[in-house]
Amino acid sequence: MTRYFPASLILILGLSLGFWVGRREVTQNPDATAVSEKMPLYYRHPMNPKVTSTTPAKDEMGMDYVPVYAEQPTATISPPESGKILYYRHPMGAADTSPVPKKDEMGMDYLPVYESEPETSGQIQISPEKIQKLGVTTATVSKRVLIRSIRALGSIQVDERRIHAVTAKFEGWIQRLYVNATGQAVKRGEPLFDVYSPELVTAQQEYLIARQGQQALQQGSAQARDTAARLAENALQRLHYWDIAQVHIKHLQSLGKPLDALPLMSPVNGVVLEKPALEGMRFMPGELLFRIADLSTVWLLAEVFEQDIGGVRLGQVVQVHINAYPDQLFSGKVGFIYPTLATETRTVKVRIELPNGEGLLKPGLYGSVTLAALEDKDARLAVPDSAVIDSGARQVVLVQRSEGRFEPHVVKLGQQADGYYEVLEGLDAGDEVVTRANFLIDAESNLKSALGSFGNNGADSGQTTHETQQGGH
Q1: Multiple choice CATH, 148-159+295-374, 2.40.30.170, 2.102.10.10, 3.40.50.720, 1.10.1040.10
Q2: Are 471 and 423 in contact (CB under 8 A)?
Q3: How far apart are CA 380 and CA 413, in angstroms?
Q4: Is the pLDDT of residue 281 over 80?
Q5: Helix (H) or strand (E) holding 129
Q6: CA distance 293 to 166
Q7: What was the pLDDT predicted at 118?
Q8: Fold of the domain spanning 124-142+379-472
Q9: Given this model, what pLDDT does residue 304 score?
Q10: Count of CB atoms situated within 10 Å of the CB of 336
Q11: What is the domain class of 166-288 according to CATH?
């Protein structure tokens, strides 16, 4: 037999059951309604808890002030009961510290860091596994003599002091040309061409006549002998002035008659740079017939930048690399520093003298010069240049405080020389600085500081995310 309940009875039972369940939830979670009805006591600065406001506000960077409730402990910074202050750190988490109290760019006080703090603010801690993965290497800051290497480019040029012009001091014609090509090597005393000249024939005849008269007057008076000797000497000297070689004068004396053609000799060992002379051509006194260069010593004209010219000295030994001979190193010395600066390139020419006994250094070859400029004979505190992180506004070095713990230090640097920077401020001898993977460590440090500015939860989640990304890589 089926029993039916009235609809009114079912409605009353449902309302009673809902009221009972609601009271039970309120009883079990009394804070659910209380939290929604709580009002903040005040609002604090997101970066500096000491700055508060009674109404919602924003800081200098547009971040909202954080509300503080009655049950929430106020976020204040109180120094430890004991322990001395190590240094002061940037309030915004930037990699910047100070040994004395100071303010940042926005006027906020730097925060003190005490010995008793478990983990020093402004430092970053990396696991040994990650250090090995990043390839972190360190070096010890120490004193050293700084030798700055100056590098410049240049080209091989002919030594201007070893260029000789071959000309004739009389009028004549070239009967036979022995050296007939530009670039041909010649030796001192080697005949260049045979020349016929009426003036030269006349000079030979005068010498032979004077010499015969001198011999004929051997039994004459002393005055006559002296006059004949002077005439013969003057005629012979005239042949010498016309660059007639001694061997040909002896041949003239033995033959006893003028030579129709006489050879003109090379005055030096070298190569022919210019050869206007042609066989059969007529030439006049002083006309250029050959230009010969002695290449036993050559110049390298290097272009040294104006900021480096102060480290160049006369007589300084240099090392030269020639592009044509990559496996050879040539040594020379600074012979001259030109007195003017090229305004287009802001460089000064430096002349370097190079011995060229083997003839390898040909004019026109390009090469690079390395000069060692000694900055100071005294040892100075120096750090490898690979350890410096230069942002343009400041230079930072990561110091390893312990295994896996790194601390950024702002440094003041001096001269750079041979892979090292002179350290004026910010480091001490014996500090261990990061020389490899320091940019990766700095990037991670900046990321943690940025995430930490949003509170502990954000920092933790940010660190977890970063660790996951590192592991993924």
Answers
A1: 2.40.30.170
A2: no
A3: 12
A4: yes
A5: helix 128-134
A6: 11
A7: 42
A8: 2.40.420
A9: 93
A10: 13
A11: mainly beta
